[in-house]
Amino acid sequence: MMDFLAHPLSLQTVYLLVSVAIAWSAAIVVYRLYFSPIANVPGPKLAAATGLVEIWYDLVLGGQYVFQIEKWHEQYGPIVRITPWQVHIRDPDFHDELYTMKQPRHRKLDYICHRFNTPSSLSDTPDSDLHDRRRAPVASLFSRQRVQQLLPSVQQKAHRVVDHIQRYCDEEGKVVRLDKAWAAYATDNVLWFTLAMSYNFVDAPGFLCSFTEATSNLIYSIHWLTHFPILMKVFNAIPPKTLTRLSEEIGAIFQFQEDVRGQVRRVVSGENEGHKAVAHRTVFHELSKEIGQAPGAMKEMEDNGVNTTLAGVETTTRSGSLTSFWILKKPEVHARLKAELEAAIPDPMDIPSFTELEKLPYLNAVIQEGLRLTYGVSGRIARWNPSISVRYRDYVLPPRTEFAMTPALQHRNPDIFPGPLEYIPERWLDNPVSPSGHPLSKYMVVFSRGPRMCLGMHLAQAELFIGIATIFRRLDVGLLETERDVVDMAADYFAPVPGNAKGGVRIRRKAGDEELGE
User: Fold this and answer.
1) From the annotation, which residues make up the binding site for heme?
2) CB 65 within 8 A of CB 54
3) Which is nearest to 259 in space by CA: 244, 278, 280?
4) I want to staple 120 with a disulfide (CB 3.0 to 4.6 A). Which of 276, 278, 300, 301 is the partner?
5) Burial 256-285 (b: 16+ CB within 10 A, else e)
6) Which among 106, 111, 161 is positioned nearest to 452, based on CA atoms?
7) Quick check: 19 and 13 in contact, CB under 8 A?
8) Residue-level pLDDT, tens digit, the chain, 518 residues
9) Where is the chain membrane-spanning (predicted)?
10) CB–CB of 491/62 below 8 Å?
11) Are 83 and 33 in contact (CB under 8 A)?
12) 335: which DSSP letter?
């Protein structure tokens, strides 16, 4: 080694190495552009030549790749090559072809399954067969029937949210962040359902919820963790308290995860006996009976605990906040919804069951349209198959090719949803169909489809119906200095992020009202 340092490379050797590197890079680019099995797929040449294009839009411009892909589809058509190794398809009628139960099933990309630090969780299990085995003991725990057991608690928390808003707005000068109220409500419901634990965030001053602050930090780091997987390994090697001293935001992420993992461990060990005092059978108490002795079971349950909390809180918070904003922003929507709720709910303190609320056509339409604009996931849902080709029209994507579709772009498709960026609940009335004659609901993928469909779908829907019905039956409030930039997607960080994410949905008692609610 010392001899090498004593004889540095000659200038000629440096030139040779640089020349070889340039020639090698040029050969890779030529192969990707002209000899790759997907070279015939249309798209921008620069994106086909290098993955740096994706990094530019993800990291430098900040979550803008989804919008660039949307523009490329307008230019090149329904199939576009967006990286040297990945093809993107925008065709609503092809969605089920990629994500349904067909065998052999497509795999999730292995190299993105570390991003949430939950590699053993259901959503981060790349292999389809292993995913099915892991999902089997969990699926029934999230069934509609199981969720029904929790609904009295959900309704109670919805009333507590409204009571809190009333108290807060009655104090002179107080303004409520309705998005924070939804976050507190969703977090309390998810933790109560899964672990029989309640932090009572719905009663916290200003609905302050530490968990949601941490999940927001994780979302903003998602592209860095995707493109530089080593970062997660580095972070995991540092104790959360030390991380917090280095960066409060990053430290909060890992402290949140450690808190959830600790709660799961206490449930499984029997230290937390809170489930004995509740009416419903909680998810992780039941899951520990099913897989508690299997190899790696504790890690699997911990990862599922973190992932369930992340997904359950984010989706309900975003959809509830967005729907509430548009109800208040559009007086005609607010008036029509309020009239329907007053007719169906004579006593505002006696909200009907979730099943009965689903039968209210305009409430249903209001929530469906909110879910459509929530998107669920704004990033690409990518898959690959090691053994079979995928055919799309005249294009054959050979085995090992990455292919993807994006829920946000499906929900923004003007051929299916005219005026796709506008909030129009009426589009869901009277059993609507698409131009091709299919029910419009076929194109809603906010909870995904097929064997990887969101487990928490029934809980999220119940929370939305009960929450919206309770808030808008009991309260008469208005927006305060709040515009659509607090809910419109301006960037993709796997979840949609609005341009004014810190502004929030601000509400106050309507001017001239003597009482806030009934």
Assistant:
1) 454
2) yes
3) 244
4) 300
5) bbebbbebbbbbbeeebebbeebebebbbb
6) 106
7) no
8) 445 445 566 888 888 888 889 999 999 999 999 999 999 999 999 999 999 999 999 999 999 999 999 999 999 999 999 999 999 999 999 998 888 756 667 888 888 888 888 888 888 888 888 888 888 878 888 889 988 988 999 999 999 999 999 888 777 558 899 999 999 999 999 988 887 777 899 999 889 887 777 777 778 889 999 999 998 888 888 887 788 788 777 777 787 788 888 888 887 777 766 555 566 666 777 777 666 566 677 888 888 888 888 888 889 999 999 999 999 999 999 999 999 999 999 999 999 999 999 999 999 999 999 999 999 899 999 999 998 899 999 999 999 999 999 999 999 999 999 999 999 999 999 999 988 889 999 999 999 888 888 889 999 999 999 999 999 999 989 999 899 999 999 999 999 999 998 889 999 887 544 344 44
9) 12-34
10) yes
11) no
12) H
Annotated binding site: 454
Question: Measuring CA to CA, how many Å separate 342 from each of 15, 166, 351?
Answer: 80, 19, 11
Would you say residue 20 lies in a domain?
A: no
Here the tokens at position 176 are 């409520």
- State how far the Cα of 9 lies from the Cα of 20, in Å rounded to an integer: 15
Where on the phi/psi map is residue 137: left (φ > 0), alpha (ψ -120 to 50), or beta?
alpha
Inter-CA distances, 20 with 31, 36, 96, 320, Å = 16, 22, 46, 56
**How many structural domains are present in the chain?**
1
CA atoms 152, 154, 155, 157: torsion sign: positive
Report yes or no on 14 lying in a domain: no
CA angle 125, 128, 131 (to 5 degrees): 50
Distance CA 280, CA 115 (A): 32
What angle (nearest 5°) sits at the alpha carbon of residue 483, between those of residues 477 and 485?
Answer: 135
Question: What pTM value is reported for the model?
Answer: 0.91
What's the CATH number where 152 sits?
1.10.630.10
Residue 19 lies in a domain: no
CA nearest 478: which of 501, 518, 506, 450? 506
Q: Which residue has the tokens 């487990």?
A: 455
514 part of a folded domain: no
Q: Tokens in use for 127? A: 């292999």
Residue 444's SS3 state is: coil
**φ and ψ at residue 272, rounded to 5 degrees:** -90, 110
